[in-house]
UniProtKB/TrEMBL annotation, chain A:
Protein name per its UniProtKB record: 3-oxoacyl-ACP synthase
Species the sequence originates in: Actinacidiphila cocklensis
Gene3D superfamilies, A to Z: 3.40.47.10
One Pfam family here: ketoacyl-synt
Gene Ontology biological process: fatty acid biosynthetic process
TrEMBL record, chain B:
Pfam families xref list: PP-binding (PF00550)
InterPro entries: ACP-like_sf, PP-bd_ACP
Organism: Actinacidiphila cocklensis
Domain Carrier span(s) in chain numbering: 6-82
Designated name of the protein: Polyketide-8 synthase acyl carrier protein 1
Gene3D superfamilies, per the entry: ACP-like
Lineage, opening ranks: Bacteria, Bacillati, Actinomycetota, Actinomycetes, Kitasatosporales
SUPFAM superfamilies: ACP-like (SSF47336)
């Protein structure tokens, strides 16, 4: 291990709790449930309810310039990064040295499908809305965040499903440790859309009811050169795949590897935060964490309040952890674990030290 | 040179101001997309494809250098559209 500290200095979220870090922390503190009945005029989906970012509209949030073709996931990410960059903890380093790393599932399923449909149904295959093209590829959101805010460092998009937010932290960690960037904005985003809702619906056997879908974006400022004691230090991230159906084993393996890499002991862990996955994945994850830490140290996923946010779920878990840590001085210097698992066969775990040096 | 109808001109103006994200009264026949309305190369391609999509025409990319303002667009579309 190198001696460099990977400091999380600030964060923001645009979530079903509203816009900004304070709104999110308040929602976590007050255990606000965010599911709303969907407007049938606006959404043509099989779901009756979803956890939407309240009143979020890209052009209302960001203005009419540069947003004509911008999709929802990009709007969420640009708004979140804007809020983070405007925050008091802002960026201590020049934007030329600031990277951007975003976890996603497929970018925007809606934009990809809209573009493809346009090409198939138009007069000519190339008679498509070309403004959609940058957003129909999965790195549209991360690219636009960098363009919008002038972030000139490395720009990466990681398609990793539910563990996206943790895999993104690991990517940011490598950029910082290798000196490719001095600061990185890192997190994950997921939009609610007709396309995502239908894909989710059809991916379940016989259209069985699934978890309420949520959406939003959470981003964290990471740097190796913090000016003040950070909110947390990222000690290690580990990920694994499972093809054998052993979900518990995959999560267990990730946690043990991340603890070892971070030089932490399971006995020191203050809290372990599962991702709140549905079905067998969630059961396996919970089994692994309960086995390692005991039920008393396993946290309740924020997904219970803001819905299944897929790629953004692990980032929201981290945001919820930092919110709780803010309210509890007993956690200072303690270790925390965040895990995630995806039905596609990936799992990940991150180990952090909360409020170091306090 | 072929002349396009006033209707088509209006239509083109609406399409182009949409892409440039300006009110249609800000856009004149001679105001330049790049210099006066901050368009970049991506935006110019969007103008071309919006015209193709909505007017059901095909415009060769080689015409892009002439499409610097509305007047240029009217000329190009006028020559293509029967």
């Amino acid at each position: 291990m190198t001696g460099a500290t990977l400091a999380i200095t600030d964060w923001s979220a645009v979530s079903p709790f509203g816009t900004g870090r304070d709104a999110f922390a308040k929602g976590v503190r007050q255990q606000v449930s965010t599911a709303v009945r969907l407007d049938r005029e606006r959404w043509g989906v099989p779901d009756d309810v979803a956890c939407l970012v309240p009143d979020f509209d890209v052009r209302t949030a960001l203005g009419k310039k540069g947003t004509r073709s911008m999709n929802r996931v990009t709007g969420l990410a640009v708004a979140t990064s804007g809020d983070l960059l405007a925050g008091a903890g802002g960026l201590p380093v020049p934007r030329e040295r600031t990277g951007f790393v975003l976890g996603t599932t497929v970018g925007s399923a809606q934009s990809t499908i809209d573009l493809t449909r346009g090409s198939l149904t138009g007069e000519r295959p190339y008679h498509v809305e070309s403004g959609l093209i940058p957003y129909a590829v999965m790195n549209g959101a991360a690219g636009q965040c960098a363009i919008w805010h002038g972030l000139r460092g490395p720009n990466a998009t990681l398609s990793a499903g539910r563990p996206g937010g943790l895999v993104a932290l690991n990517y940011a960690r490598r950029l910082l440790l290798s000196g490719r960037a001095t600061a990185v904005l890192c997190g994950a985003a997921e939009e609610f859309s007709d396309a995502r809702s239908w894909i989710d619906h059809h991916s379940r056997e016989g259209g069985a009811p699934g978890p309420v879908l949520g959406e939003g974006c959470a981003l964290f400022s990471l740097t190796t050169e913090p000016e003040e004691p950070p909110l947390a230090e990222l000690l290690a991230v580990a990920s694994a795949t499972f093809a054998d159906g052993d979900r518990r084993g995959a999560v267990d393996r990730c946690v043990r590897r991340a603890l070892a890499a971070g030089g932490a002991e399971a006995s020191q862990v203050w809290v372990a935060c599962p991702s709140g996955a549905a079905g067998a994945e969630g059961d396996g994850e919970l089994d692994a964490l309960t086995g390692l830490f005991g039920a008393a140290r396993v946290g309740t996923p924020v997904a219970a309040l803001i819905g299944e946010t897929h790629a953004a779920s692990a980032s929201f878990e981290l945001a919820a952890l930092l919110s709780r840590a803010e309210d509890d001085s007993a956690c200072a210097g303690r270790t925390a674990v965040i895990t995630s698992i995806d039905p596609g066969g990936t799992a990940a775990a991150a180990v952090l030290r909360l409020r170091p040096g306090q | 040179m072929a002349v396009i109808s006033a209707d088509t001109r209006d239509r083109i103006k609406t399409l182009v101001s949409d892409v440039l994200e300006v009110e249609s009264d800000e856009l004149t026949d001679t105001s330049r997309f790049v210099e006066d309305h901050d368009a970049d190369s991506m935006r110019l391609i969007e103008i071309l494809s919006s015209l193709e999509l909505n007017l059901k025409v095909t415009i060769p990319q080689s015409e892009l250098p002439r499409m610097v303002n509305l007047s240029g667009v009217y000329d190009v579309v006028g020559e293509i559209r029967p």
